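Q: I have two molecules that I believe assemble together. Could you output structure tokens for the complex as a whole instead of separate predictions?
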Amino acid sequence: MNAAPKPAPDQATIPVVNDAADIERAQSQVVAAIERHNYPKASIFAIKLSLHEAMSNAFRHGHAKLAATVPVKVAYKVSDNTIHLAVEDQGPGFDPKSVPDPTLDENLERGSGRGLLLIRAYMASAEYNAKGNRLEMVYERPVA
Amino acid sequence: MAAGDSRVRVKRVDNVSQVEFIDRNILDEGNIQVIGEEITELIDAEPKPRLLISFSNVEHLSSAALGTLITINNKVRAKAGQLRLANIDPQIYEVFVITRLNKLFQIHETTEEAMKSFAA
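A: Yes, here they are, computed for all two components at once.
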């Protein structure tokens, strides 16, 4: 008889390479932990979007000059009222203040540059480290 | 998914190409690129394209998908065509509001309302 699969841990650090299946695996592990803590659908939406945007930015910008097999690190910790996420790339870092505001009229039709805006809209906090290669995000359970 | 699998369903109604997404999650950049290419083919096939994109199956959408929608909008406008978006789930609509893209696109609650809005 097969043993029941182990539940996703409440916290872990996962290496993720730039591959759709690996990205989906990381997302699923984080979402499974969140679901076990009975966060509402809106929270899962917020986390899934923010994590995806953070990973996309890490690969597209942080790892622009690195092979697809070089992983980013995704760390998460889920507790009853808060979710901590961190995405760290192995690139040279950047200045987040250099990202233009995509909601300004002159930037509205730009093809990219909205990821950080969306993360900040859904997270209670989203801060880069001094080097600019690690984004730490905190999500708070909405008040019922 | 095999390479080249379609990511959209298209129906032609009253001279309007009605597009629906096959995927519930429009996150993967490879899929988004295929979606962009498929819709671009529809635009290229018409002298004045009339396009309705329905989000009725969509549960998650990334900023890369928004970028592709902007590109599609620009291509439609360049041909003096018309683009409408419809059936957007409230959580997804909030993404359009946060990014102010609700000001760029003509968004309708239902397919029926969107179809009525196309100029003759």
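A: One point stands out. Chain A has one domain: 11-140.
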